[in-house]
């Protein structure tokens, strides 16, 4: 393999000749071989935006000449657009609070800018990874800022996905509005409801998730770019510190602001813990909804879309595999929340050394839950009700009598139930129609009556 020789403070090392990364990345590539997991592409793209904001600020203030500044700006733009994505080979579980990742970005941008200027990779006299690309910056302000940008954009995407998921539930709410069935508590039959009402409850849970995700952006908008190593801005010009935030706002379109005490967002990662908790709440809703759908399918009250053969030995078996897949994603997201919490809590003094782990699992959870939401939305569209099966279960359920308490009272209702049981009846609804009249039973068990908020006093003796 052809290579080029690069130098750093530790000596010399061969780097693949066609690689845009350099010696710092090459050392990290050899040092950190843990998980095989890479940082999500959205974090790389966010770093492209951060580096471009820094470049533009330095260019405007005269710290970069026009020729090099424009080449570097173009390289940053390419990175932000998702180009050069294959030039980030490092393991996400790296030491150094993300320094290796930042150096990987610096080297890739430097070599791409050199290439734009007509030079050869590794000729850092033209564009230097540290003196040019990383000018007035530190890993400790660029990496957390990029992570917040990537997280905000991911939350916006997830919010849109959950909106579509909520919409799918609301459409089923309308479609199943007249499907009467028995409700259940503690896995036992309870009072009558409608199938549409069950889907309405699903929709409301997802509506709360959307509101939480809206608030997530507010929690993440405070960044520490310009704070350099520990948040004091040491090594950066005062004019740059104020200008770079403006440039970043312009590039991202996000309402970002510099922390009033910049040491805070450099040292403390609790906002990530808070928004990760929002992801955990969403995962709880996904678990609950998917499990309910599995149970309703088992009872035969709904039919899930058949998407693949379910067994290698049982012909004709079809399993709720989409729901199981989404539930596993939700469980993984809850595990990721634990890691976010631990990584944030183990920061020390003026830095969070474990931000790489936090970044990887946080962004992975956002990506995974987005995929899960899209899968579940498509699956919900194909869910069908079985009204006859719902009525069959409803008709034989003794808890059906509860709907008649406002008209009958507890004692009379209990007496009718005992009479029904003594006669060995199997269809309580038919029995009640004989005793109370069909019109009264149909009115009591109508979809409107079952989903109304309480009963009207003038209906008590109707």
TrEMBL record:
Entry's Gene Ontology cellular component terms: cytosol
Transmembrane segments: none
GO MF annotation terms: aspartate ammonia-lyase activity
Protein name: Aspartate ammonia-lyase
EC code: 4.3.1.1
Listed Pfam families: Lyase_1
The Fumarate lyase N-terminal domain, residue ranges: 11-333
Provenance organism: candidate division TA06 bacterium ADurb.Bin417
Keywords attached to this entry: Lyase
Swiss-Prot/TrEMBL GO biological process terms: aspartate metabolic process
């Amino acid at each position: 393999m052809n290579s080029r020789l690069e130098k750093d403070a530790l000596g010399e090392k061969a780097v693949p000749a066609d690689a845009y990364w350099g010696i710092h990345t090459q050392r990290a590539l050899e040092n950190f071989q843990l998980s095989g997991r890479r940082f999500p592409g959205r974090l790389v793209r966010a770093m492209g935006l951060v580096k471009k904001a820094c470049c533009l600020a330095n260019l405007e203030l005269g710290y970069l000449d026009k020729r090099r500044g424009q080449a570097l700006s173009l390289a940053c733009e390419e990175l932000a657009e998702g180009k050069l994505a294959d030039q980030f080979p490092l393991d996400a579980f790296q030491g150094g609070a993300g320094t290796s990742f930042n150096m990987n970005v610096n080297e890739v941008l430097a070599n791409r800018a050199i290439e734009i200027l007509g030079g050869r990779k590794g000729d850092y006299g033209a564009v230097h990874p540290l003196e040019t690309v990383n000018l007035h910056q530190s890993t400790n302000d660029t990496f957390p800022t990029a992570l917040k940008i990537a997280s905000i954009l991911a939350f916006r995407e997830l919010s849109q996905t959950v909106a579509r998921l909520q919409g799918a539930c609301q459409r089923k709410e309308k479609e199943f509005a007249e499907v009467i069935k028995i409700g259940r508590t503690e896995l036992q039959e309870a009072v009558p409801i409608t199938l549409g009402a069950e889907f309405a409850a699903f929709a409301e849970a997802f509506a709360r998730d959307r509101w939480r995700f809206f608030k997530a952006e507010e929690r993440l908008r405070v960044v520490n770019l310009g704070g350099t190593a520990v948040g004091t801005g040491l090594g950066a010009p005062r004019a740059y510190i104020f200008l770079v935030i403006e440039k970043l706002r312009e590039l991202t379109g996000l309402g970002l602001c510099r922390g009033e005490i910049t040491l805070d967002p450099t040292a403390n990662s609790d906002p990530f813990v808070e928004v990760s908790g929002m992801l955990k709440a969403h995962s709880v809703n996904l678990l609950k909804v998917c499990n309910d759908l599995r149970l309703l399918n088992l009872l035969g009250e709904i039919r899930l879309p058949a998407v693949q053969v379910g067994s290698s030995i049982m012909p004709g078996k079809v399993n709720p595999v989409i729901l199981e897949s989404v539930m596993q994603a939700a469980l993984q997201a809850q595990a990721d929340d634990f890691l976010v919490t631990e990584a944030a809590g183990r920061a020390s003094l003026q830095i969070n050394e474990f931000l790489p782990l936090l970044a990887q699992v946080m962004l992975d959870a956002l990506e995974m839950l987005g995929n899960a939401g899209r899968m579940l939305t498509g699956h919900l569209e194909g869910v069908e009700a079985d009204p006859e099966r719902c009525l069959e279960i409803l008709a034989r359920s003794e808890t059906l009598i509860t709907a008649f308490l406002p008209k009958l009272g507890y004692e009379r209702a209990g007496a009718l139930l005992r009479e029904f049981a003594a006669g060995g009846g199997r269809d309580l609804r038919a029995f009640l129609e004989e005793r109370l009249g069909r019109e009264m039973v149909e009115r009591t068990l109508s979809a409107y009556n079952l989903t109304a908020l309480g009963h009207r006093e003038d209906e008590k003796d109707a």
